[in-house]
Every structure is written in C-alpha cells, then in structure tokens.
Design goal:
Layout (H helix, E strand, L loop, with lengths): L10 H6 L3 E2 L11 E6 L2 E6 L7 E4 L1 H12 L6
Antiparallel strand pairs: 1-2, 2-3, 3-4
C-alpha cells in the first residue's frame, strides 16, 4: 500500500491556494467552509475568515470527515 505524506502548508501556500466553496453554500456564506488541495494535503478554512487558521488533513482523513458529516455522525 502506498502512503502519502502530508505536511502543514506554509502561510504563503495557504494564501496562494485556489480555495473553493461548496456549491451548496448560500450567497451570504454564513456557515460555509472552503477547501483547497495543496500538494498531498486537503485544507479546510472558514470562508468568513480567509486569513484565519486552516485545518490540514490527509486525503483519507478528509474523506472520512466528509462522510461522517454527511451521515450526521457529528454534532456540528
């Protein structure tokens, strides 16, 4: 099995990333997150705080988190 290593991206990499918002987001963006792929890392941030912190996940962890959210397993 091939494992991919991911590292926390630099502030510069986060600032220059191509962030995308969910197509289900409302125009106001009140409760939205944005995603960006930087090398082997999936980054998630609050769309209202572009300069704020970002969560850096491996692709596998990002898929697991997404599935758990969709299944209603997390109290968000």
């Amino acid at each position: 099995m091939r494992t991919m290593q991911h590292t926390t991206p630099s502030r510069s990499a986060l600032a220059n990333a191509s962030w995308r918002k969910s197509s289900r987001s409302q125009a106001e963006g009140a409760e939205c997150v944005e995603l960006a792929r930087i090398a082997a890392t999936v980054c998630v941030r609050d769309s209202k705080d572009a300069d704020g912190p970002a969560l850096a996940l491996s692709p596998g962890h990002a898929r697991t988190l997404t599935a758990r959210i969709k299944n209603g397993e997390l109290d968000l």
